[in-house]
Amino acid sequence: MSTGYFGDLKPIAYEGPESDNPFAFRHYNPDEVVLGKRLEDHLRFAVCYWHSFMWSGLDPFGGQTFDRPWYGDTMEKARLKADVAFEMFQLLGSPYYTFHDADVRPEGATLAESISRLNEIADYLEQKMEQTGIKLLWGTANLFSHKRFMAGAATNPDPDVFAYSAAIVKSCMDVTQRLKGENYVLWGGREGYETLLNTDVGHELDQAGRFLSLVVDYKHKIGFKGAILIEPKPQEPTKHQYDFDVATVYGFLQRYGLEKEVKVNIEQGHAILAGHTFEHEIAMARSFDIFGSIDMNRNDYQSGWDTDQFPNNVPELALAYYEILRAGGFTTGGTNFDAKIRRQSLEPSDLIAAHVGGMDACARGLKAAARMIEDKALSTPLDERYAGWKKPEAQAMLSGQRTLEEISERALREGIDPQPKSGRQEVLENVVNRYV
């Protein structure tokens, strides 16, 4: 039953590249087969609850600009929000959605009441999912908004906050399991510090390692088949965060023996804040074998914070999906739109248009990436550049069959005098541009 919030908008259909309908897909045809798989199955789109239905339009210098009928701290409002959310998921044809506990239920007066409300709204979400066929990509806990988390959750100097956070995460994992979520995400928005003057870094890292170990143990205890994901975040809101980027997360996982248990959910905006490209972070995750999922958004390159805008840069998206395809594509993960409309975009239809444009841009990027894979447009030059390492002596050096002395002796004996070879960066950039 329609809530009427989106007026007379009809489900978004694919109309092809020539369409000028702002509420139609021009490039995203869910049933189009690319590299032997439907586009819908490649991209695995998900709409997030928080930016789409929780954000009120505020920014650091101004308050609320949106007036949504579901704003309020009652379960009645929470059910209305779910009604509108699932109506939007259906309009977009999004196969998945994602949420934090605080997105879907109002805060209770006590921890027990907050958990009870989460379970109550989960019953309602379960009904909506059965009615629509829309699935849960992942659930997570909001351990950063409330003032109790101002010094962190797992890394808080107060052990009672650690215990409170553990109870919240357990309840969210239980609900994610019940709703057949395909992943569970840990986003450490406050897991960091502002100054070393009041921080024991080693102690807090051990706390974070213990907390994550508890999560992994509980996953196995309840038989959760999905992936546990950490979302790297370099700064904002805290000055320094322990999960700065993919490489930092991998080092953390190795230290606590969790590198085989936990993967990463990578956000484009966070990659930029860390001083990397999105494709770099995906490539690192692929190399470490911890690639899981992505949050799809973009930053304003003139701003120094995470602006969470909808994606529209097809060349960037093509390079990101190229690395995802090289990683074998998504398994339990997907493309989650962790993006919000601008605070001046006041019409309900703006929410739809933003997602339509983002889905189209992602489809264009993935199809360009697939063509580069099929044509070996980048892999052939790459293989040629590293061809020397396939020779027997190079393999012997790489595999540990040669000592430093032996390598040095051969270099002197054979009079090795390597000459520089062009990296051909501009040529390869031109190749990419031909596909996008």
Automatic annotation (TrEMBL):
UniProt binding sites for Mg(2+) 1: E231, E267, D295, D338
EC number(s) per entry: 5.3.1.5
Keywords of this entry: Carbohydrate metabolism, Cytoplasm, Isomerase, Magnesium, Metal-binding, Xylose metabolism
Cofactor annotation comment: Binds 2 magnesium ions per subunit.
Keyword Transmembrane appears in the UniProt entry: no
Catalysis performed (reactions): alpha-D-xylose = alpha-D-xylulofuranose
Record-level GO cellular component terms: cytoplasm
Catalytic residues (positions): H100, D103
Gene Ontology molecular functions: magnesium ion binding; xylose isomerase activity
Residues that coordinate or bind Mg(2+) 2: E267, H270, D306, D308
GO BP: D-xylose metabolic process
Domain of life from the UniProt record: Bacteria
The protein's required cofactors: Mg(2+)
Location relative to the cell: Cytoplasm
Alphabetized HAMAP family for the sequence: Xylose_isom_A
Sequence similarity: Belongs to the xylose isomerase family.
Self-association and partners: Homotetramer.
Protein name: Xylose isomerase
The organism of origin for this protein: Nitratireductor aestuarii
Recorded name of the encoding gene: xylA
